[in-house]
Amino acid sequence: MRNVFILSLALLISACDPFTQPESMLDEYNRRLARVLDLETQLTPVPAAPAFPQTRERVRQIDPISLSLLDFLRLYGCDLQFVVGERNSILGRVAHPLTRLDYERRFIIAAETCAETIERESLAEQLIEATAQKRASLPDAVWNAVWGSREIESHFARSRGALPVRLDRDQVSSSVRNAAVLEHRVRVLLNGELDSDLAELDAIYQRWLYDPLAGQALRSAILVTTRLDDASALIEQRLGERPLCREGRSNRQAEIMRNMFSSVYAAEVQPYLADVQRVRRELLPPLLALATFVEPSPSESFERYVRAVLDDSREYNHWRAFDQAVARHTRAWQALLDQCGMQPGGNRPMQGRETPDDPDQPSQSSAPMKQSSSAAGFARANHHGVDGWMAQNRGPLPRVAY
Questions:
Q1: Which is more confident, 388 or 160?
Q2: Residue 232 has pLDDT above 80, yes or no
Q3: Which residue did the predictor score with more confidence, 256 or 376?
Q4: Residue 399: pLDDT band with limits 50, 70, 90
Q5: Alpha-carbon gap, residue 276 to 214, rounded angstroms
Q6: What residues contact 60, with CB distance under 8 A and at least 6 apart?
Q7: Alpha helices in 90-212, H assignment, sequence order
Q8: What is the C-alpha R_g of the chain?
Q9: How far apart are alpha carbons 333 and 162 in whole angstroms?
Q10: Separation between Cα atoms, residue 170 and residue 383, nearest integer Å
Q11: Does the pLDDT at position 178 exceed 80?
Q12: Looking at the predicted structure, is the pLDDT value of residue 281 above 60?
């Protein structure tokens, strides 16, 4: 009973403290700023984050290759027969994109080995041709394994709100590590190194299911942009209407303003901006690389999403708007503090923080991976005598996809 009371008390205190949630913290900041500037609070609606494209808009089409059942049976003695058999099983037809990618990898390895040992020359030539096609479409399979999965939808989910005020730095490190490992494995595969098993990537996909960090970072960027613009408008309104201080001399209202700047903006808001910026600078570069390693994008909607969410070098990008809002707010505070002679040592209010002052400088990002192929994407028999099968079955032979 005592534990229940303590928990209830903690929840009550948290509910009364506006600085425990990003939305209430930024709203409270605007209210207090309006109060010290003797203005009305002006909170504009926060725009919705763009929706993550649907699966059909994210995947690339891979032209199927088929093998006659007769030739399939002639693969007896080759590992390729088992690989193709798995692909045509019930589970193989509905396999996860990562599993399909692993199948493509194993097919190439097994087909090249089989082509060197199989006696039937025509079948060996067919396998060589099929292997060449599989290698050409490998970037498509890699792409689909990343962007065609339901796990990455959870990573970009909008339903989990903005980043928390007290950011879990271990979670951030884990998310960044996941994206970096996946980007590295993609590069390895596209360089033609197919020997490594992809099973280790399963853990990354499982963590993505419960890791909405990319979506939370986007929600934070939009929230911060909106509320900092609201606050900047208040300061600019006061500067334009009547001075808070005359002839650079401080007064009681200016002291209240400076105290609010120190206790709320510097102590509460700025650390949150630094956390948002940290996630942006560490997580977005590998995600952008994964979204651009093959061009063009599979759909216009996916291309728009990348431009708006991941590529901050674009003009209409939420992170670029975030930079511009931070820079505008910095200038507004500088002007207000300068008016009252309160610039400490001539330092800028936001100096020393991770938030940038120049809206035209995009965050550092790793060079996008390029691939000459026109597409990209990701994924993972019993033997019977050929003559006996032909004796019992007449007419066209069925075909086996591979």
A1: 160
A2: yes
A3: 256
A4: low
A5: 11
A6: 140, 143, 144, 298, 375, 376, 377
A7: 90-93, 97-117, 121-147, 150-155, 169-190, 202-209
A8: 29
A9: 25
A10: 51
A11: yes
A12: yes
Closest CA to 141 of 395, 364, 380, 363: 380
d(CA 92, CA 86): 6
**Cβ neighbours, 10 Å, residue 314:** 16
**Would you say 139 and 147 are in contact if contact means Cβ atoms under 8 Å apart?**
no
Contact of 291 with 175, CB cutoff 8 Å: no
Bridge partners of 401? Answer: 66
Residues comprising the chain, all counted: 402
Q: Look over the chain and give the mean of its residue pLDDT values, rounded to a whole number.
A: 84
* Distance set, CA 89 to CA 82, 386, 400 (Å): 10, 20, 10
Dihedral class, residue 341 (left if φ above 0, else alpha if ψ from -120 to 50, else beta): left
The answer to whether the CB of 20 falls within 8 A of the CB of 196 is no
User: 186: closest CA among 86, 261, 272, 293?
Assistant: 293
Q: pLDDT value at position 400?
A: 53
Residue type at position 57 = E
Q: pLDDT tens, 33-71?
A: 999 999 999 999 999 999 999 999 999 999 888 777 767
In order, the DSSP letters of 20-61 are: GSHHHHHHHHHHHHHHHTT-----PPPPPPPPPPPHHHH---
How far are the Cα atoms of 55, 91, 401 from residue 60, in angstroms, in the given order?
10, 21, 18
pLDDT over 50 at 363, yes or no:
no
Tokens at 240, concatenated:
């334009």
Q: Which residues contact 379 (CB under 8 A, 6 or more apart)?
A: 95, 96, 97, 98, 99, 100, 101, 102, 103, 104, 141, 144, 145, 148
Query: Can you tell me which residue has the tokens 């960044």?
Result: 176
3-state secondary structure of 210: coil
The H or E element that residue 345 is part of is: none
Please state the φ and ψ torsions of residue 184, each to the nearest 5 degrees: -65, -45
Residues 230, 269: Cα–Cα separation, whole Å: 14
* Gap between the terminal Cα atoms of the chain: 63
Tell me if the bond preceding 368 is cis, omega within 30° of 0: no
Residue 278's contacts (CB-CB under 8 Å, 6 or more residues apart) are: 167, 172, 354
Phi, psi of 46 (to 5 degrees): -80, 120
| Least reliable range by pLDDT among 169-183, 296-310, 313-327, 359-373 | 359-373
